[in-house]
What we know:
Blueprint: H1 2-42, H2 47-68, H3 72-85, H4 91-102, H5 106-127, E1 135-139, H6 142-145, E2 148-152, E3 171-175
Antiparallel strand pairs: 1-2, 1-3
Helix pairs in contact: 2-3, 2-5, 3-4, 4-5
Amino acid sequence: MKNSFQTIRKSLLAAALSVALLGCGQQQENSSSQETGNAVAETPKTSEDAMAFNAIIDAYIELKDALIASDAEQAKAAASQLEKSISSTNPTIKKIALNISEAEELEAQRKAFFELSQNMTTYIADNKPEKAELYQQYCPMAFGNTGAYWISNSKEVLNPYFGDKMLRCGKVEKQL
C-alpha cells in the first residue's frame, strides 16, 4: 500500500510538473510574441526610414553649424546636401534648401534658414525615430527682435542667426 501511494504521489508530482513546465513554455512564447509586437508598434519606421531621416538631420545640422561659423560657402554645400537628401515628397524643404545653396550672401542664407527651420520642425514631428535627441532653440533678438527658432542636436545654444556676433543668444525651448 505504501508503495502504491508513493507511485501515485510521484505520478501526480510528475504530471503537475509537466503541466507547470508546459504552461511556462506557452507563457514565454506568448510573452515573446507580445514583445515583438510591441517593438514593431513602438518603432514603425524601417531602418531605411531612420537612415534617410539621419541623413536629412545631419545635413541640416551641418548647415546650422556653417551659419554659426558665418561660412557662406560651407552653408551652400550643406544646403545642397540637404536638398539631395530630402525626398521629393517634401518639395517645400527641398526648395528652401536649394535657395540656400544658391544664395551668395550669408544674410539671405540665414533668412531662408529661418523658414527651413519652421518646416523642419514639422518634418521632425512627423518622422522622428524614437531615440533621436533634438532640441528646438529660440533667439528672441533675431530679425529685428521678432525672434527665430532653429533645431539643434545639442542643448548648448550656438546661434546660427548671429554667429560669433551673439553666439550664445537664445535658449532651449523644448526637446523634440
